[in-house]
Amino acid sequence: MDITKIVSNMQLTPDSSAPLYLQLANNFASRILESSIPSGTKLPPERELARLLGVSRTTTLNAYRLLEERDLITTRRGSGTYVNDLSQSQSAYTMPWAQLFTPQYKSPLSSLLRTLVATPTANNIISLAAGMPDPALYPLSLLESALTTKTPPLDPADMGYIPTEGYFPLRRALATWQTNQGIRTAPDNILIVSGSQQGLYLTIKAFVEPRDYVIVESPTYLGAIQILEAAGARTLCLPNTKELDLAVLEDYLVRYRPKLFYTIPTFQNPTGRVMSLQNRQDLIRLAARHRLVIIEDDPYGQLYYGQQPPPSLKYLDNYGGVIYLGSFSKILAPGLRTGWVTAAPSVINHLAQEKQYIDLHSNNLSQRILHVCLEDNALSDHLTMVRTEYKKRRNAMVSAARRYCSNQLTFTTPEGGFYLWCNVTTPVSACPPASTGLAGRPIL
Ligand SMILES: Cc1ncc(COP(=O)(O)O)c(C=O)c1O
Question: What is the residue-averaged pLDDT of the chain?
Fold first, then answer.
């Protein structure tokens, strides 16, 4: 490598607003970083460099100083100027990110949901790891036409910032949709969020401080556990019984003064359980007496495969304490990342303030598409189709479980949603058999 030739080819622009020494330093830096001037190369002395480029010695001196500051070269007195070994100089200055982060709650569960969501499904494998809608049922042409043919052409205003509470036509359409289901709702009662996961995060952030008590069903949605753990909440678990045990709930209310109760009353994740109407009414009566905040998470309520489930807690809410979380993820497509919160306007205002710190508002295009789907009744048509399709799959799953696992499993056929909760009746091993070299250990 002929350094003199490389240097002679360097282009400097005297009329540029960037000073010559900076241009020269940047020129060297990019070549050093891309290794076209390799580590260990001896660079021309400043005087020689100035002569080659037709610039002053101050320019070359300043350029070399800057490169030294950036740790790209070293001048050894009496020997000359050399390009540094970048692998060493860079590792010496690697950012110590782990030491700089603020404390973050980490448990064995921390990254589990992220892994589940990110794991692509192989062609011939149906993943049962998480409750996901089947991608083959995403209404792609409906979503495409909602954006292209069914709405006026995009206007610059459609792509600007919008109020944090969400795209008003979508809030209005959702208010109508819910009112038609008997939940009297105005647009002011609705906050559009980036998935009900965000709604859950915002609500927990709004009410829960470290060491506060929160009641949950056991088992419950992993994403909720993660948020509660990160918030430093202490969870009080309601046992997995056929009906919600309101005696235990009341005991918790009296003894611990919990901040809220998080529940999935319809096609619960992961048990598939549906709270009966009587149980819901009793819960609301109890909650009203204790002014208990209830978060009703309802991503699956529309996915029923027989009779419609009992009305939501929000429908029965006569004291205004239920905060309802809805989502388009399971009924349309999770990639829309759109859900909503229905609550009293003061709660919506508070959550919107919090949301503003995170993302200003949710994605305009998704909201526009969803508005069309609701206005057009296309969502109802799609729901009719997926209910039929998922019912077939539920039946296939149940008959396969009966046929192949009836000796080991007991379960109740779920009336909707994505979950078949099984009790294992005989000890089974979760590990490979001993012949593989890994001793099988029973998990029960
Ligand atoms: C009970 C429950 N709540 C919330 C979510 C998250 O939904 P979204 O995609 O709307 O954030 C899920 C996803 O599996 C869920 O099962």
Answer: 90
- Asked whether residue 51 is assigned to any structural domain, the reply reads yes
Which residues form the domain of 49? Answer: 3-89
Q: Work out the average pLDDT over 400-416.
A: 93
Ligand 1 nearest-atom number relative to CA 334? 9
Ligand 1 neighbourhood includes 339 CB (under 6 angstroms): yes
Number of domains forming the structure of the chain: 2
Please identify, by atom number, the ligand 1 atom nearest to the C-alpha of residue 197.
Answer: 11
- Tokens encoding 253: 């209310």
Residue 201: partners with Cβ closer than 8 Å, 6 or more residues away: 227
Residues 190/175, Cβ–Cβ less than 8 Å: yes
Structure-token match 């990254």, residue found:
111
Does some domain include residue 198? yes
Domain boundary among 380, 400, 432: 380
Please report which confidence band the pLDDT of residue 438 belongs to, taking 50, 70 and 90 as the band edges. Answer: very low
Angle 360-335-379 (CA atoms, 0-180°, nearest 5)?
A: 100
* Residue 130: inside a domain: no
User: The CATH number of the domain where 39 resides is what?
Assistant: 1.10.10.10
Residue 114 lies in a domain: no
Q: Does 201 share its domain with 324? A: yes
pTM of the model: 0.77
- Separation of CA 299 and ligand 1 centre (Å): 6
